[in-house]
Amino acid sequence: MPKTKATKPKQAKHKKYMLVRYDRMNTLGWFEHHENYIPKVPSRVVVKTDRGLELGQLVGQLCPYRAGHFRLSQEQIKKYFDDSDVDSSIKPTGRFIRYATPDDMSEERHLQKIAEEELKSCRRFVKEMDLPMKIVDAEHIFGGERIIFYFMSDGRVDFRELVKKVAHEHQTRIEMRQIGSRDEARLLGDIESCGQECCCIRFLKALKPVNMRMAKMQKATLDPSKISGYCGRLKCCLRYEDKTYTELKKRLPKKRTTVKTQHGQGKVVDTQILTQLVVVELDNGTKIAVSVEELEIVSPPETTPTREQDSSPKDAEQDSNESENKVDDNQAQQP
Exposure string (b/e) for 297-326, b if CB count within 10 Å is 16 or more? Predict the structure, then answer.
C-alpha cells in the first residue's frame, strides 16, 4: 500500500485581543475578537465573561490598535503598571460578541432601573431578617443570567436564607459579594475634595496600602478630615508622590548633622524636601537656609541615648487590599 504523507498539524492563527473595562467595579480584561477594524471613537461593546453577557467600554481605541491587533503586548502593559507602581493583573477574560447597538443601550438603562428595585427588595429582606450587613449596590448582568449584590459587613454572615428569598422573588441566579470601604467609594463615590472624580472610579484598578508615614513625610496636615477620602481612609493620592519624596529625602542630611557653609559651620535643624533646602543653625546662633548642593558635611549627627520604645507603636498600614473581594469563602450562588 502506498505510504500516506504525514500531514503537518495546522498552526493556530494569532489571536487578537481588545482591552475592555466592564462591570460595576470597572474591571479591565482582554477579550478575544476577529474584527479587522477598531473604531477610534468611544465605543461600547458586548462581551462574554464567565458571568454571562456584559456591556463594557473599549479601552485605548485612539492609537494602540492596528488591523484589529492591540499594538502593546501584555508584557509591555505589565511593565507600564509596574513602572507606575500599580499592581495590575489583566488576563484573557472572555470573547467579544458585538459592538453595542441602540437596543443594547436601551436594555442597559432598563436593567439599571430593575436593579434599583432589586436593591430595595434585598434591603427589605435584610431588615426583616435582621442580618448584620449593609447592602451597598446591585448589578443586574446584561444577559440576565444573574444579579450581584455588593455588601459590607464586619465579619462573616450566613446569608443562605437571604439568597433563597431573593432568588425566589426575582427568579434568577443570585450572587452576594462582600466588599470594603474603598470598594464602596468605587461604587458610590463622586467628586473628591480636589474637585476631580474619585481616582478609584476613574482609573485605579488595584489599591495599594497607604499609611501615615507618607502623610508625615509630605508634611501634610494630620487632620483626619483633611487627609481622608470619600471612603474614610487615607487618600490614595498620598501614595502617588511618596516614591519621589523618598528619593529626594535621601539627598538631605539628617538633623543635628554638622555641616560647613559659605557663611560658616553649623548644625542642621530642619530640611525642605521639595525645595532641597537645609536650615542650618550657625555657631553664632543665626539660622540660614542653604541649598543642599552648597553644603559640605563635616560630621554625622550626634547620637542620642536609645530609649525603650515599648510605648511607641508603629504606624499601622491601612489594608486597602479590600478590593481583593472576599468571595472565595464568603460567597453564595443560588440557581
Answer: eeeeeeeeeeeeeeeeeeeeebebebbeee
